[in-house]
């Protein structure tokens, strides 16, 4: 199924969210406006607002009530992206130069700080203390994930457990909060809140694992950045870790020692990771998380919205971009 | 009067706040702990917590109630400092290397993001929606101030009005919020809330103007950074703007054109700024704000706490560090 079709139920409202995002991010000051809008336009799927709206559809759906949450979630996500690009030295994202690449580190820091601060106004507009509490907690944990990445960036011995903690903090928790809080803003029952929270967490884990797989397998044009970018930056992700587990002769291990200083034989290394089964096993892990996400919905009564959640979960591991 | 004596009424509780700050900022991860603690120890007066506690003394003082606010205010302040040092390329603050200087830009971004996120947990712990709202608004405005500085950094034609807007955003609003919200957390009357808010705003304006004056006049050892640092960075502050207004022959103006590329004749330029009356007129502006701050307290009944607020206001323009 196409990605667009998946969000059919909230398509119109997602369009309104896009307009709200433009309103929030645009600036009277031209000096700021261009990089801020560049960041907005470069950024993708609006998965967090989409999940929040869909989750609200499981309860008393009131677009005006869930709107500030949906916008805040995307702003938080954007703020972390623009700071991450500085830390990871990323020059390309989705085929476009990053804010860092075009306007430099200082502007990236500011834009991130500003967009994050704006998200606080919207969180306040939710008028729900639980929403504020959850997003404060998630924000703190997200910074822990970023820092873990900075710290462990060049560390091949990163254990699988550490990798999982990192992607939970960096990706899964905000997706989990998107689902959970969307439900909260529509007064769904505690049982459904719990299902949404678990679903978002597991889908988030799978989503990031697939992202890390696609970094090795996707078409460069589709990906918008060079294949193996993570590895080139010295970032060790699940496919590598799983391949290393099967690397009895320590050949892959030895070659990784010289990265990212020596990027010449990166193609060869990727081939080895594939040969050792790193990619296919990582897919198995992602599918396992998707099954957990689907199970989380077991107790939620059948409805078109529930079906959509299940289809999205399936789509996450099938996508090739 | 000595600075320490000014906060005599809240001395014990400020000590507890310092311990809370250590608890909040310290990290299990050593990689993070050192720069975070460095930032905490490098940073000064704890003016924002002190104002919050003193303001609470005007109402039903309950330390446990005002504590999370006081800690959050200092964390917000610290987060802005560590990001500012990246943007301003500052290597020294209060005589110590900045986090940027010792650990680099990436760590500075992270530490700032993390400490700011932690402040959100404490704001949540205040359990007061007005507190959350005001601090969200102030945070957005503070980023506007930073960006204004980035934008106008090398712009000699910065008008005095723009300078005032900038220091309001960068400094005065958070001090204003510290006073106002300290009162809020102690249920002071609306009239006193208003007095505190105005007082903090005007004291904040005066405080920043004096800071900008001291950059030219203070002893290098007391200042902890080279005299004229702002100007060396191309930062045009009130003493310069006021001197330029009297610079009929455009001599100062011409010399400033070559800054900061040419820092050789900075001593000469500072002398000119002084000769043109830039310093003394800037002091007059600071004193004018202090008078407004004091007037804001007119309707507050006399008490030792009120006296303290008035003494602090007087001290702001007398301090030489």
UniProtKB/TrEMBL annotation, chains A, B:
Its cofactor is Mg(2+). This is Heptaprenyl diphosphate synthase component II. The keyword Heme does not apply. It comes from Carboxydothermus islandicus. InterPro entries: Isoprenoid_synthase_dom_sf (IPR008949), Polyprenyl_synt (IPR000092), Polyprenyl_synt_CS (IPR033749). PROSITE patterns: POLYPRENYL_SYNTHASE_1, POLYPRENYL_SYNTHASE_2. SUPFAM superfamilies: Terpenoid synthases. Belongs to the FPP/GGPP synthase family. One of its GO terms (molecular function) is metal ion binding. The keyword Metal-binding applies. It comes from the Bacteria. Keywords: Magnesium, Metal-binding, Transferase. GO terms for biological process: isoprenoid biosynthetic process.
């Amino acid at each position: 199924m196409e990605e667009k079709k998946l969000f059919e139920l909230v398509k119109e409202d997602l369009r309104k969210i896009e307009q709200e995002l433009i309103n929030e991010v645009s600036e009277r000051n031209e000096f700021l406006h261009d990089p801020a809008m560049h960041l907005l336009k470069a950024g993708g799927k609006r998965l967090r607002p989409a999940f929040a709206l869909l989750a609200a559809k499981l309860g008393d759906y009131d677009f005006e009530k869930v709107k500030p949450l949906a916008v805040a979630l995307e702003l938080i996500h954007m703020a972390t992206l623009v700071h991450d690009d500085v830390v990871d030295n990323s020059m390309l994202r989705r085929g476009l130069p990053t804010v860092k690449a075009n306007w430099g580190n200082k502007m990236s820091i500011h834009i991130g700080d500003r967009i994050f601060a704006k998200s606080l106004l919207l969180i306040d507009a939710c008028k729900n203390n639980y929403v504020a509490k959850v997003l404060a907690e998630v924000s703190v944990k997200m910074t822990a994930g970023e820092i873990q990445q900075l710290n462990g960036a060049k560390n091949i011995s990163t254990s699988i457990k550490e990798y999982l903690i990192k992607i939970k903090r960096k990706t899964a928790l905000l997706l989990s909060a998107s689902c959970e809080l969307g439900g909260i803003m529509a007064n769904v029952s505690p049982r459904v809140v719990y299902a949404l929270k678990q679903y978002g967490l597991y889908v988030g884990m799978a989503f990031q694992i697939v992202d890390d797989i696609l970094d090795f397998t996707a078409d460069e044009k589709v990906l918008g950045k060079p294949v193996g970018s993570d590895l080139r930056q010295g970032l060790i992700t699940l496919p590598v870790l799983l391949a290393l587990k099967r690397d009895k002769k320590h050949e892959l291990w030895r070659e990784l020692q010289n990265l990212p200083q020596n990027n010449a034989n990166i193609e060869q290394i990727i081939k080895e990771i594939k040969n050792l089964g790193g990619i296919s096993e990582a897919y198995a892990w992602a599918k396992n998380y998707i099954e957990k996400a689907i199970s989380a919905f077991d107790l939620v009564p059948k409805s078109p919205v529930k079906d959509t959640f299940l289809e999205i979960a399936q789509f996450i591991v099938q996508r090739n971009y």
